[in-house]
Write a structure and sequence with these properties.
By secondary structure, the chain is an alpha+beta fold. The protein is 37% helix and 16% strand. It contains eight helices and seven strands. The chain has helices at 11-23, 47-60, 101-113, 152-164, 176-183, 190-201, 235-245, 249-265; strands at 3-8, 36-42, 66-68, 76-80, 87-91, 125-133, 136-143. The longest helix has 17 residues, at 249-265. The relative contact order is 0.14.
């Protein structure tokens, strides 16, 4: 398709791009370890209608039509005029005995979870629908981390269902490129603000004295929520703490992670 807009990465995307570039380790640069969600759907499902709902999502959100212009140190992103929905449908009810359907479905889901995206060719997301029976389905969604975080996938699925239901949605007032333009504007008094934090944070603490007799294989970048925790965090309590401190959920997670590092490494301060 034809390119309708071209602009640089946002500062947030540049941070992620550094990680993608570094972790490629000489391999072809792809989008790996992407946010992923799998949703069970009960009841009848019209596959053609779901595909049309995805087309409406693509038309409404420029970010779903965006790819990178190149894989250099500072790539630009391109919004394409149109793009076919990257939608796959697998009907196990017609081809696999009932006792084996969940086994096959789980293998398909694992494959989608490990999916890699070509950042230049695109598309940088994919949707898979698995039909286990006429009234039992699994919908999976994977999107490059350059364009979405894990929490946003829930919003994607909710909006997709609104399109599927035929609910009219207004055109978006702001697109991804508008967000990038705002992020790249000069910040008034930036040096004064940076000087304040330099005074507060410098000198940085040294490296934490962690034990080194562990396997060198890196841990999974995505949590699979299969471990049993002794006590789950109370969502209401976390929200009240965030409101009192004017902190987002992400900031609370960073603070908690820093606290764990400080306790494990016996440090009073942690740079994270």
């Amino acid at each position: 398709g034809m390119c309708v807009a071209e602009f640089p990465l946002s500062p947030q995307q540049e941070f992620l791009w550094e990680g993608i570039w570094f972790r490629s380790l000489g391999r072809e640069i792809m989008s790996r370890n992407n946010p992923f969600i799998a949703v069970e759907i009960d009841g009848d499902l019209d596959v053609a209608r779901l595909r049309q709902a995805l087309i409406l999502m693509i038309q409404r959100h420029e970010s779903l039509r965006t790819v990178l212009a190149d894989l250099g140190p500072q790539p630009y992103q391109r919004v394409m005029e149109c793009m076919e929905p990257p939608f796959l449908f697998v009907d196990l009810a017609e081809t696999v005995p009932q006792d084996y359907r969940m086994v096959v479905a789980n293998n398909l889901i694992a494959g989608e979870r490990a999916n890699e995206f070509d950042l230049v060719r695109g598309p940088l997301w994919r949707c898979l629908l698995i039909s286990l029976s006429p009234d039992a389905h699994v919908l999976t969604l994977s999107i490059s981390h350059l364009f979405v975080d894990a929490a946003s996938l829930v919003g994607f699925v909710r909006e997709l269902m609104r399109h599927y239901a035929g609910e009219p949605l207004p055109a978006l007032k702001h697109q991804h490129r508008d967000f990038v333009e705002r992020c790249r504007r000069p910040i008034a008094g930036l040096e004064e603000k940076l000087d304040y934090w330099r005074r507060q944070l410098l000198p940085l603490p040294g490296a934490l004295p962690f034990p080194t007799d562990y396997s060198a294989s890196p841990p999974s970048l995505m949590s699979r929520a299969t471990e049993n925790f002794r006590k789950l965090p109370d969502e209401t309590r976390l929200r009240s703490i965030g409101a009192a401190m004017s902190a987002t959920s992400f900031v609370l997670n960073v603070v908690a992670y820093s606290a764990v590092l400080a306790c494990t490494g016996s440090a009073r301060r942690v740079a994270s």
